Request: fold
Amino acid sequence: MLEALKKSLFPGRENEREVSSKPQALNADLHCHSVISDGTLTPTELAKRAHANGVELWSLTDHDEVRGQQEAALAAKALGLPYIPGVEISISWASETIHIVGLQINPDDAQLVEGLAKTRAGRAERAREMGEQLAAVGIEGAFEGAKYYAGNPELISRTHFARHLVETNHCDDVHEVFSRYLVPGKPGYVPMQWATLENALRWIIDSGGMAIVAHPGRYKLTELEMSTFLDQFRDLGGSGLEVVTGSHTLDQYRKYAKVAKRYGFKASRGSDFHGPEESRVDLGSLPPLPDSVIPVWQGW
Ligand code: AMP
Ligand code: MN
Ligand code: MN
Ligand code: MN
Reply:
C-alpha cells in the first residue's frame, strides 16, 4: 500500500530507500588524530564533533599510539556513536615513509602496545636533531617550541614543529612549513627508521584488526614501486586501501577505487582530520565511497 503510494507520488524514485541504505553511503570517518598524537582536539572533543557532523561510524587513528582509545570509545558510547578502535602506524619501506591504518585492533594487545612503543622511541632524539638543524639556519628554540605543542611527550611530530614555526612567524601556515622545512632536502628533516611493513601488519592483524594503506595517493613511489608494495602488503595479510580521504583528489578517488578492486582490497573512508584550524576536510564531510568498492565496514 505504502509502496504503491510512493510510486504514484515519486515516479522513478521508488527504490530510493534501497539506494540510501547502500553500505557505501554510510557516513563513516575512520581516520583522524587527537592531542594524543598530532591533532589539536581531545578524543572527547573529536567524538562530539564527529557526532554533530553526522558521522555514523567513527575511529580515532592516532599516529603510533593507542592511549586515546579508551577515552574515544567511552565518549562515542555516551553519544550513541558506533566506534571502531584504530591506529595509524608509520612504516619505512624502500626509503619511503608509508602509513598503515589498523582498524578493529585490540588496543590492549601486548604485542601491539610494545611494537608501537618501539616505533615511537626514536622521536625524542629526532626532535632534538630537528631543533639543531633549524637552529643552524637561524631558528632558535624550535625543539622547546614543538615540545610545548605536543600533548604527548612520547609523540613529538613534524606537525608540532610546524605549529611552532607558524606561531613564531617563520611561515604563514603549516602548508608553507612543509614546503620550506622538515621535508627531504630542507632544514629540519631527519630521516627515521620506522616500523617494518611485516611488523606493523603482524601487530595489527594478530590483535584482531585489519590493515589498510593510508592515503595511497600521497607517496612518492613510481607505479612499479607502488604495485610491488601493494603485492607485499597483500601477501602479508593487508586487506584494505583508503580510497576516499582528505588527501585525495576526485580523480584519485576513482583511481584508488580501481586499484582496490584489482587487488581485492576493501575500501576505507576517512578525513584525516587534525583540527579545525588546520584541516581542510572536517570530520564526516567527505563524499561517500564509490558504488564500485566493498567498504571495510561490510561485515562488521
Ligand atoms: P611525523 O610522523 O613526525 O613525520 O609527522 C607526519 C605528520 O606531518 C603527518 O601525519 C601530517 O600530519 C603532517 N604533514 C606531513 N606532510 C604535510 C604537509 N605537506 N602538509 C601538512 N601536514 C603535513
Ligand atoms: Mn598527522
Ligand atoms: Mn598519514
Ligand atoms: Mn593521519
Summary: Residues 31, 33, 88, 272 surround manganese (II) ion (ligand 4) (CB under 6 Å). The longest strand covers residues 86-93. Residues 1-19 have pLDDT under 50 and may be disordered.
